[in-house]
C-alpha cells in the first residue's frame, strides 16, 4: 500500500523592500572611506580602504561606530556577498580623522 503524499504548499516569494534612495548595494571591494552600513544593530563607518585576504576571497577594512572612535575594529566580508551601504553625497569631502587624510 502506497501512501499518498500531502502536497506541500509553496511559499510565496516576498517582495523585497525598495532600497532607500541613499543606500546602494555593493560588493566589499567597492566600498570607500566614509561609507556607512548597519551591522549587529549599530551603524558603522568605514575608516580604511578594503584590503584583500586569502587570494581575493575575502576583504578586510577598519570600521568604527559613527562618532565613537573607541569602537574601532577590523571587519571582514566574503568578496562575493553584496551588502547595503549609505554613501554621503559628497563622499570626497568628508571630514575624516587626520590620520586617514592623504
Strand content: 35-45%
The CA-CA distance between the termini, in Å, is 77 Å
Low-pLDDT segments, ≥5 res: none
Shape: elongated
Number of beta-strand segments: 7
**Helix count, per DSSP?**
0
What is the third-level CATH name, the topology of one domain?
A: SH3 type barrels
- Classified by CATH, the class of one domain is Mainly Beta
Mean pLDDT: 78
What class do helices, strands and sheet pairing give?
A: mainly beta
Instruction: Please give the largest β-sheet.
Output: 5 strands, antiparallel
CATH architecture of one domain: Roll
Helix-strand sequence: EEEEEEE
CA radius of gyration is: 20 Å
* Helical percentage: under 10%
Give an overview in words.
The structure is a single chain. A hairpin with a 2-residue loop joins strand 2 (36-39) and strand 3 (42-46). Strands 2, 3, 4, 5 and 6 form a 5-stranded antiparallel β-sheet that branches. By secondary structure, the protein is mainly beta. The termini are far apart. The chain contains no helices and 7 strands. It has a domain at 23-90: Roll (SH3 type barrels). The radius of gyration is 20 Å and the shape is elongated. Helix content is 0%, strand content 38%.
Tag the structure with descriptive keywords:
five-stranded antiparallel β-sheet, mainly beta, SH3 type barrels, two-stranded antiparallel sheet, 102 residues
Quick overview of this protein structure:
It is elongated, with a radius of gyration of 20 Å. Helix content is 0%, strand content 38%. It has strands at 23-26, 36-39, 42-46, 51-53, 58-65, 68-78, 83-86.
